[in-house]
Amino acid sequence: MAEPHGLVERLEKAVIRLESLFSGSHRAAGMVCDAVNGVNGRIAPYVEAFDRLLNGSVAEFLRYSKILEGDVKTHAEMVRAAFQAQRSFLVLASQCQEPQENEVAMLLKPISEKIQEIQNFRERNRGSKMFNHLSAVSESIPALGWIAVSPKPGPYVKEMNDAATFYTNRVLKDYKNSDERHVDWVKAYLNIWSELQAYIKEHHTTGLTWSKTGPIASSMSMRSVLSSGPGLSPPPPPPGPPPVLDTEGRKEEGTAARSALFAQLNQGEAITKGLRHVSDDQKTHKNPSLRAQCPPVPSPTKSYTPSPTSPKSLPQQSHAPVLELEGKKWRVEYQEDKNDLVITNTELKQVAYIFKCNKSTLQIKGKINSITIDNCKKFGLVFDNVVGIVEVINSRDIQIQVMGKVPTISINKTEGCHIYLSEESLDCEIVSAKSSEMNILIPQEGDYKEFPVPEQFKTAWDGSKLVTEPAEIVG
After folding, report:
1. d(Cα 92, Cα 34) in Å, to the nearest integer?
2. What does the pLDDT look like over 311-341, one tens digit per residue?
3. What is the pTM of this model?
């Protein structure tokens, strides 16, 4: 009986050892499959913290968006999907080691696609009554690209949040005294980015924290995370990282080009001599056959200019130039090296939207409601009369000459803007924010005298309120 008993003991030890080996190898092979639940079935602390953000501020934003319905509700669902894609990436990072840079870019594609989808929705719905709502989301959603920013992703998120406030302020202006639901929507949306900054500060101060153990992250491991994640919808195959604009400016080249454009605008009334008249048979809005030959291309995604630590940009696509009247809006888009652009036969109810035009000059004759210059470089504008506002946004090296009257000119996130006022427009108000190299030229004795707009301010407490004044000498 001793020998069988000893044999049984040896067999039991062998079984225990085999089970141990099998369990260890199973954990190594199935590490990714257990990613959602973390090591030993536990969720990583920073994934838990992200879940609290999703269930808190993001859920509140979705609730207010559903109340507003329409385009805002649809847009908010896209935001929810983008945050879910980011959660999947965080789960992967909590269980896997950081891969090579090119592999990281591939893993970021699900988030990138969601960002692109959100921005494209805004561009396709420029006529929406909720366009300012859509713009606020579109301008700031690249904040989800913080996971590709180091060493300080927090400030990058703040920049994106600041980009949203330009449009959320418009929403507040339109609805503050008429519909509190929109005010609540603004507060809920901005709160998302405030809480995301706090989340990053606590868990990823110097950048995304990858696991020090486990397999190296790959596309296969990401698919495993998506397939095993509770309640998460796997994002479809996406394009590249969040699009951003090129921030590398060449001031020397810009100064030379600006001087040439400067001289051109200084001609005053004589500038119209070299302009080519656009006859009716050349206008796309009056000739369906021309539209068929060169169909209008939807405006591309525009983004707030990020910091140098932002994710890399995608190559810019080429688009067909557009100059046409669409309803009440004159669309002037993607014009390159065109100094003979003219808009005539304008009406008071019409507006002009100028987008992505470079090294070009446009003259608008007659009286128009408003003009917006968006994402343009080295662009000159000459107009007669505007009854509303002229806005310059996200642009560089802009020259504007007022031949008649305009009550307000707004300059936002622009580098280099020179405005020539007429005698009739000297009472014009200039509103500026986050801009530099702004100059107003006033007509004096047959010439213009240049006055710089202050860029730096000092603020002091006078005992009852804050008093702000320019910190530089203007004269």
Report:
1. 10
2. 444 445 578 999 999 889 999 999 999 998 9
3. 0.45
